[in-house]
Amino acid sequence: MTNKKTILTAKNLVKNYVSGSIETKVLRGIDLEVKEGDFISITGRSGSGKSTLLYVLSLLDKPTSGEVLFESCDTKTFSETMNSFCRLRHFGFVFQDYALLPELTALENTIVPLMVSQENWDNIEKIGTDMLTQVGLGDKLRNYPSQLSGGEKQRVAIARAISNNPRILFADEPTANLDSKRADEIIDLISDLHKKGLTVVLVTHEEKYLEKTDRKIELIDGVIKTSE
Amino acid sequence: MTFLNPLKIGFFLASRQIKNANLWVNVLIIFIMTVTFLNLVFISGLLEGLVTGASKDSREHYSGDIIITPDEEKINITGTLRLVEEINNIEEIENYSVRYLQGAQVEADYSPFLRPNIERNAINATITGVNFENENNTTRLEEFIVEGEYVYESPQNKVLVGSGFLEEYESAIEGSTLEGIEVGDKIKITALETPKEYIVSGILEAKLNQINNRIFIDTQQFISLTGRSVQNSDEIAITINDPEKINSLASTLSKIAENSDARAESWRESQGQFFEDLSVTFTILGAVIGAIGLAVASVTLFIVIFINAISREKYIGILKGIGVGGPIIKYSYLFQSIFYALIGSLIGLFLLYAFLVPYFYENPIDFPFSDGILDVTPEGVFLRVVILFVSSVAAGFIPSHLIVKKNTIDSILGR
Question: What is the value of pTM for the model shown?
Answer without folding.
Answer: 0.72
